[in-house]
Structure formats: C-alpha cells, structure tokens
UniProtKB/TrEMBL annotation:
Residues 2-145 form the Glycosyltransferase subfamily 4-like N-terminal domain. CDD domains: GT4_CapM-like. It comes from Pontibacter populi. It comes from the Bacteria. InterPro entries: Glyco_trans_1, Glyco_trans_4-like_N. Residues 187-343 form the Glycosyl transferase family domain. Pfam families: Glyco_trans_4_2 (PF13477), Glycos_transf_1 (PF00534). This is Glycosyltransferase family 4 protein.
C-alpha cells in the first residue's frame, strides 16, 4: 500500500512521526513524505521514505493558501497514494480538500488548535469556516485530547462518528528513558522546551524566572527552542535578546539531542495557553522528570496535580513562579517520586506503539471502505 504523510515541515515528520514511518515500512507499505524541503528531507529519504517537496508558506493568509490546495492536489494526483495522513493546520484543511478532489481517503490529526480558539479575530473566524468546509471530507479525524474533540463537535466542525482521541503522537519509551542527572551537585535547573512563541507562555516563563532568580540566584532557568518570528504569536529576536540580557534565563537554541538536555534538568516547565498533547512534556515524563504546566487542554492530560507535577494558572507569571518555588523546595525523595509517576504515566498512557496500532487499524479501515 502507498501511504502519504503530509506535514508543514520535513523536520516535523522526522522528529514526530519517524516511529510511525518505521512501523509502516516494516509492514511492507511504501511511505511518501510530502512537505516543504528542508535539512531533514534527506533524512526522511535515508529512513526509507520517498520525498515529494511541496511549498507551504508560513503565516496566516487563507486567500494565499488556497494555492496550497492546488499544489497538494497535483502532488496527490501524481503520487496516487492509497491513503493520505494529514498533520498540522494547513495540511489538515487544504490537504483534506485536495484529497477529496483527488478521490483519495484521508486521515487527519488535529495536534493542537494553535491560535484558532485562543485569539478570536478575523483570521480565526476564517479558520473556523475553513475547518468546517474541509472536515466534511476526511474518513477519520484523530484528536489529541477530549477538549479539542468536544470543541470541534460543539462548533459543528466535524461529524462525531469519524472522530477518535489519541494520546498525542505517543512517545518512544526506548528513545526517552530515565537518566540520572550527570552532575548531582549542579544547581537546580528548570527547563522550558518550546518554540519561542507568546502562546507557549514564553513571556510568563521569563517573568517567573526573574521573580524566582531574585530569591534564589544560584538556580538555573533554561529555554530550548526555535525562534519563529514569522508565526502569528512569534517573539521577535530583538525582544528575546532584551529578555535574555536581564540574565534570568539561559537560551540554549535548538538541538537534535533533546534527551541529553532533559537529562540535565530537575524540572521541565511548559506554561502554554493551549496544546494538543505536548510532545515536550511526554519526552520529559518518559525521562522521569517532575513537570509544571498550565491547567489547560493538552497539558493537563500529561501533568496530574501533586502526582507527577504541578499545574499553574494560564497567563499568570506570579503563579508560575510560585509553582516553580514549590518544586524547588521539595525534598529529593518527593521529586524522585514525582519523576517515577511521570514515567509510569508515559508507559501506561502515551506509549507510541498504541498510536501506531490505532493508525494501522484506521488505515486498513478507510482503505477497505473505499474498495467496497
């Protein structure tokens, strides 16, 4: 069977869907990665995929993005996949429409609603209309938490019968395993892993770190993630530089070896405004780290209050600082217990093999339905 995977970057496919790709290849399927070309495109080819480049402009101009439907339609017509797997907002919307016109069954994955339900404005109202139009067509729509599914049903954006909830993208429990902190005498370290976007809570993390460092100057507060100035919620490099100049947070840039950075942290923080199921929290949970996150959809699927971490209030830097201080003051035994609970949650709820099995079943289901 020929299966196409369509995402907004090759980086995203390689970092978040490689386990699924390997499983599909092991089953004897042909996998075609369709995405903009970047430095990870060759890695997808090396992993056994065929690669078809399709340009997807950044930004939120729905009128400009209509052309993406045509580009994806041409790619689908040329590749002729038996099924298309869509991820991220543009492939979910424009890819679903393109697959419909190409008469190819599609499986969409809503991995997070981004700004659509966070900032109510002209762009978000158009996005809702586009979702409603496009989501008539997929054979299956996966969500990463029940809140997102209920929201789509409430707005009549999708038929309930084709929806299902998955535990995020899952986590490879062999790739992310508990590793003792390399230097047990190193300062207590908080780590936030996210693209540098306001909607991820970066501003709140910066402020909370300033408040905490004023009381505990020896602690470390780190930020790992890509600057994305073209995003609607992107933090400008000049703003980030001004924040970093204050000295409260150390910026680590980006890395292909996230596990090594997580291993050096004592607590992983994500004060996001809304998530699907955040991959960074899954990675940290699998590595047995205590967590702090906002009490919002997606985050609270991974963080259980006082079990494996603490939940803070959204857009509230003082409350985040208070939760970070609580974590800092916990005895080592309690931190270890929280870390063990994180690993248990990762093992029992978020194993990537469960996600893979659901995809294999859904692929068989929608392709068999087409044959009937």
């Amino acid at each position: 069977m020929r299966i196409a995977i369509v995402i907004n970057t090759s980086w995203n496919i390689f970092n978040f869907r490689l386990s699924l790709i390997k499983a599909l290849l092991a089953e004897g399927h042909e996998v075609i990665a369709i995405a903009p070309r970047d430095t990870y495109s060759q890695r997808l080819i090396d992993a056994g995929c065929k690669f078809v480049p399709v340009t997807m402009e950044k930004g939120t101009n729905p009128f400009k993005d209509i052309w993406l439907t045509w580009r994806l339609y041409r790619a689908y017509s040329r590749v002729k996949p038996d099924v298309v797997l869509h991820y991220t907002i543009k492939p979910n919307i424009y890819g679903a429409i393109a697959a419909h016109f190409a008469n190819i069954p599609a499986i969409n994955n809503v991995s997070g609603l981004g700004t659509v339900f966070i900032k109510k404005d002209y762009i978000s109202s158009i996005a809702l209309k586009l979702y409603k139009q496009a989501f008539q067509y997929p054979a299956k729509v996966f969500f990463q938490n029940q809140d997102d599914r209920r929201l789509f049903l409430k707005h009549n954006l999708v038929r309930a019968g084709i929806t299902e909830v998955l535990p995020g993208s899952g986590i490879d429990l062999k790739a992310f395993t508990p590793i003792p902190k390399p230097d047990s005498n190193a300062p207590f370290t908080f780590l936030m892993i996210a693209r540098v976007l306001y909607e991820k809570g970066v501003a709140e993390y910066m402020e909370a770190s300033r408040l905490l460092k004023a009381k505990y100057p020896t602690i470390k507060c780190q930020l790992l993630g890509q600057v994305d100035e073209l995003s609607r919620f992107g933090v400008k490099q000049t703003v980030l530089d001004a924040w970093l100049a204050e000295g409260a947070v150390e910026y680590l840039g980006t890395t292909d070896d996230v596990a090594t950075i997580i291993a050096q942290a004592d607590c992983v923080v994500l004060p996001s405004y809304r998530e699907g199921t955040p991959r960074t929290l899954l990675e940290a949970a699998a590595m047995a780290k205590p967590l702090i996150a906002t009490n919002v959809p997606g985050c609270r699927e991974v963080v259980q209050q006082n079990i494996n971490g603490l939940l803070c209030r959204i857009r509230n830097a003082p409350d985040l600082a208070e939760k970070m201080e609580q974590m800092l003051q916990m005895p080592p035994e309690q931190l270890q217990k929280m870390g063990e609970a994180s690993r248990h949650i990762a093992e029992t709820k978020f194993d990537v093999n469960f996600v893979i099995q659901r995809y294999l079943h859904a692929i068989a289901e929608v392709t068999n339905s087409k044959k009937v």
